[in-house]
């Protein structure tokens, strides 16, 4: 799933490649991807591709037209979506089908981008709205972890409000903190040397400080690495620089212990027992259910 660093890099990429171009057409290949109908998708036609912002994991493209109010084209790539830049785009409309293509955005002269989504769970979302806050997912977002308002005091308030909720869930709930997903929460908890199952309200002052620093440091460094990369390079860069996420069975780069995994219904987390849980393996929820 694209998370804060990759979405910010995509926003930077679009600022460089697309700002100033004109929306000529948008092909909605997967009707489920378009979540709004008023304004219609055709409201983008003839408008200029303007400023690009990021709200958590949402991309926000301001679409302008002289003498008319702006509209916003807001995109969420969900778990398996991606943006693919194209410079020789065919003019023939694609046929709806079962392939990965969800939307095709034409920006003139064969330039544009495809929004694709792998897998069977189609959650990629596109919205045409008057204001970004018209998108429910944007309206409910918590503070941006790299924003000036995400202070140590604000973070402690978030943890206190979460009560006994597990840290893994607190970090990934977008109404608490915007932009962190499954991968970077694993990396943050590993850097902070904390168990993903530790209760949010049970942290010492030192643990809160370590976790806050890990959030800022891990996301800042990932954003720096992603800056300037082409859209097609971001996935591999993210995977290459993970310490524990996606590295089950490999050696922890800090202590050398084997990276372990806990599996859930549709996802998993990775951690190092030596670094994070005092050497004690966490129960694999999926295996536990099978043994009952």
UniProtKB/TrEMBL annotation:
SMART domains: Fapy_DNA_glyco, H2TH. It catalyses: Hydrolysis of DNA containing ring-opened 7-methylguanine residues, releasing 2,6-diamino-4-hydroxy-5-(N-methyl)formamidopyrimidine. It comes from the Bacteria. Residues 2-147 form the Formamidopyrimidine-DNA glycosylase catalytic domain. Its cofactor is Zn(2+). Keywords: DNA damage, DNA repair, DNA-binding, Glycosidase, Hydrolase, Lyase, Metal-binding, Multifunctional enzyme, Zinc, Zinc-finger. Pfam families: Fapy_DNA_glyco (PF01149), H2TH (PF06831), zf-FPG_IleRS (PF06827). Signal peptide: none annotated. SUPFAM superfamilies: Glucocorticoid receptor-like (DNA-binding domain), N-terminal domain of MutM-like DNA repair proteins, S13-like H2TH domain. The keyword Metal-binding applies. Residues 243-277 form the FPG-type domain. The keyword DNA repair applies. InterPro entries: FPG_cat (IPR012319), FPG_N (IPR035937), H2TH_FPG (IPR015886), Ribosomal_uS13-like_H2TH (IPR010979), Znf_DNA_glyclase/AP_lyase (IPR000214), Znf_FPG/IleRS (IPR010663). Belongs to the FPG family. PANTHER family: FORMAMIDOPYRIMIDINE-DNA GLYCOSYLASE. This is Fpg/Nei family DNA glycosylase. It comes from Tenggerimyces flavus.
């Amino acid at each position: 799933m694209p998370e804060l660093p990759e979405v910010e890099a995509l926003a930077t990429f679009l600022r460089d490649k697309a700002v100033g171009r004109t929306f000529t057409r948008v092909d909605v290949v997967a009707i489920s991807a378009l979540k709004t109908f008023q304004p219609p998708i055709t409201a983008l036609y003839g408008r200029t591709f303007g400023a690009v912002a990021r709200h958590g994991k949402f991309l926000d493209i301001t679409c302008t037209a002289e003498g008319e109010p702006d509209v916003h084209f807001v995109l969420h790539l969900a778990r398996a979506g991606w943006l693919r830049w194209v410079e020789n785009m065919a003019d023939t409309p694609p046929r709806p089908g079962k392939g990965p293509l969800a939307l095709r955005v034409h920006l003139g002269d064969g330039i544009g981008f495809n929004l694709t989504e792998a897998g069977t769970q189609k959650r990629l979302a596109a919205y045409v709205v008057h204001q970004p806050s018209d998108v429910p997912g944007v309206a409910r977002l918590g503070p941006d972890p790299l924003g000036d308002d995400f202070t140590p005091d604000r973070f402690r308030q978030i943890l206190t409000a979460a009560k006994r909720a597990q840290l893994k869930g607190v970090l990934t709930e977008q109404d608490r903190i915007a932009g962190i997903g499954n991968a970077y929460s694993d990396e943050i908890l590993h850097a902070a040397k904390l168990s993903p199952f530790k209760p949010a309200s049970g942290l010492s002052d030192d643990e809160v400080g370590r976790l806050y620093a890990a959030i800022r440091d891990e996301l800042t460094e990932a954003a720096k690495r992603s800056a300037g990369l082409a859209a097609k390079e971001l996935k591999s860069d993210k995977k290459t620089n993970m310490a524990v996420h996606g590295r089950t069975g490999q050696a922890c780069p800090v202590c050398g212990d084997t990276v372990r995994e806990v599996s859930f219904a549709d996802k998993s987390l990775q951690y190092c027992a030596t670094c994070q849980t005092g050497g004690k393996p966490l129960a694999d929820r999926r295996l536990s259910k099978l043994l009952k």
